[in-house]
């Protein structure tokens, strides 16, 4: 009997039955390799897996595509090496159909193929789902249809994913995330450089061919090619597609005499004025190295395109038109320029310091200043060498690395700053802050319709100690405290003192924290006024399940 009929033998996996309720558990490279013998099953990693730089044979093919689920469970697949320069459909998975991938990390990537090549998937047919995928450092080199995540995705969605790998296409269709796409993309970031010899290169996607949405995504690498070259997307060729709340930082070079090259998008085309492509709330700030009538600061050339509230840095791009899109660098560091942008839920800006960046998708290694990522703080964020916080600007940058270690070196005054809490439910603070005996003064938050408010909005398994907060005035809806709005997981809060101010909410309000699910609180105090409309308030904690 076949493995498909009876399931994989017990010795071929570490456990499970291959069902959604009880997936096969994979602990070793041999067990990972055994996915090819049951391509419709459900799998979950139970350990980091090192492929030891051995030649990997991609799983699935066009006649028997992988159609199951792989949940990385937060673990990493390391040292993926594939050398198939004359083969199509190359990646950890060669060919998939209606597959589901989530919580996967792949690092140490060296992949060679011909067409349809990516670190995770070469070719994804029908409706595939990709969520929380991280593709690390390395290089993917192919002829055409090459991307950091996947070479081609014919349908489905990609969300909360990032790539750092560099992309080289000796012909066409190269993208930091996807080479050729018919998928919706949201909350995704690429950091690698893209080089194509011919056409269609983008920091995020080389070519978008259907009426999909790209939202809350960005690309930071440099992009080079002949024509249809964009900092975010090389070509959008689809009626009704949407590019919104996204940006590009990298240098864009289009070598052709008719380059269709732009800082954000190379070309945007719709065949119908009734189904225009919408570009909304986007910006680009990189150098645009291209000339001619099909080159531009934001978009190289467009047809039937509605462009609203979208801008480019005229000094960096080297273009001054259109006037409604061209802005100076100082202009793009001011919130007032970005009218109708959502600075409550999507965007943040450090006035006169940074371009806009995403609240819920922090940059892992820096902050956007003068069209590039720069290091945020002194130190490296480890327990031995924590990031050093000296002033109000420094402390606001904790949001760029939510799982790092920090230490105060001065008292911090937040006067005249409308503070945005660090951490949200989808991107909580998981690191450590040592107050080092110093104080944070004049914390002010006024967001009566928002939940989870405090110096930290949402923390999971975090540690905060040796800190004083003076004169905290925090107003919100639910889960409101001077230090933390909502604390989940095994948190440790020790020797934190709140010595003056006021907390106002509908419910779940505390001087220290609004809502604490679990964790450990020791030697903390709060001398602060608490006001709630619906009760559930405490001098220290509004609602607690902690010890």
TrEMBL record:
Residues 225-253 form the GLUG domain. Transmembrane segments: none annotated. It holds the Pfam family Glug. It comes from the Bacteria. InterPro entries: GLUG. This is The GLUG motif-containing protein. The lineage of its organism: Bacteria, Bacillati, Bacillota, Clostridia, Peptostreptococcales.
């Amino acid at each position: 009997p076949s493995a498909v009929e009876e399931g994989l033998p017990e010795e071929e996996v570490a456990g499970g039955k291959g069902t959604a309720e009880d997936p096969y558990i994979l602990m070793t490279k041999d067990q990972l390799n055994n996915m090819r013998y049951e391509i419709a099953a459900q799998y979950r990693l139970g350990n980091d897996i090192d492929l030891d730089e051995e030649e990997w044979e991609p799983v699935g093919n066009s006649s028997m595509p992988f159609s199951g689920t792989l949940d990385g469970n937060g673990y990493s697949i390391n040292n993926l090496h594939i050398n198939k320069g004359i083969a199509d459909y190359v990646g950890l998975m060669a060919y998939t159909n209606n597959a589901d991938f989530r919580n996967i990390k792949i690092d140490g990537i060296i992949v060679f193929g011909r067409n349809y090549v990516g670190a995770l998937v070469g070719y994804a047919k029908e409706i595939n789902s990709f969520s929380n995928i991280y593709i690390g450092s390395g290089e993917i080199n192919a002829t055409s249809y090459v991307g950091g995540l996947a070479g081609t995705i014919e349908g489905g969605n990609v969300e909360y994913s990032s790539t750092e790998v560099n992309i080289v296409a000796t012909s066409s269709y190269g993208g930091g995330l996807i080479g050729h796409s018919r998928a919706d993309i949201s909350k995704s970031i690429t950091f690698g450089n893209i080089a194509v010899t011919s056409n269609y290169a983008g920091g995020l996607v080389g070519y978008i061919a259907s009426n999909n949405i790209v939202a809350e995504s960005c690309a930071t690498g440099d992009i080079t090619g002949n024509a249809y070259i964009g900092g975010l997307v090389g070509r959008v060729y689809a009626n009704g597609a949407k590019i919104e709340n996204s940006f590009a930082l990298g240098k864009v070079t289009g070598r052709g005499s008719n380059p269709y090259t732009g800082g954000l998008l190379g070309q945007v085309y719709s065949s119908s004025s009734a189904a225009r492509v919408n570009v909304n709330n986007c910006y680009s700030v990189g150098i645009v190295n291209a000339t001619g009538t099909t080159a531009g600061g934001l978009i190289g050339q467009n047809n039937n395109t509605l462009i609203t509230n979208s801008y480019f840095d005229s000094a960096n791009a080297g273009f001054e038109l259109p006037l409604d899109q061209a802005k100076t660098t100082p202009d793009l560091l001011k919130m007032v320029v970005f009218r109708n942008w959502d600075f409550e839920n999507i965007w943040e800006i450090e006035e006169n310091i940074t371009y806009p960046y995403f609240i819920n998708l922090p940059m892992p290694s820096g902050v956007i200043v003068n069209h590039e990522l720069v290091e945020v703080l002194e130190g490296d964020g480890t327990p031995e060498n924590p990031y050093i916080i000296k002033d109000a600007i420094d402390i606001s940058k904790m949001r760029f690395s939510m799982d790092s270690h920090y230490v105060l070196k001065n008292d911090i005054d937040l006067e005249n700053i409308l503070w945005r809490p660090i951490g949200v439910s989808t991107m909580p603070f998981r690191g450590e802050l040592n107050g080092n005996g110093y104080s944070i003064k004049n914390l002010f938050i006024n967001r009566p319709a928002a939940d989870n408010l405090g110096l930290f909005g949402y923390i999971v398994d975090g540690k905060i100690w040796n800190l004083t907060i003076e004169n905290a005035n925090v107003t919100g809806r639910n889960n409101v405290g001077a230090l933390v709005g909502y604390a989940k997981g095994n948190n440790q809060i020790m020797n934190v003192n709140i010595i003056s101010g006021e907390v106002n909410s509908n419910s779940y309000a505390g001087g220290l924290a609004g809502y604490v699910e679990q964790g450990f609180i020791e030697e903390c105090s709060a001398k602060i006024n608490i006001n709630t409309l619906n009760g559930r308030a405490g001098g220290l904690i509004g609602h607690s399940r902690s010890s």
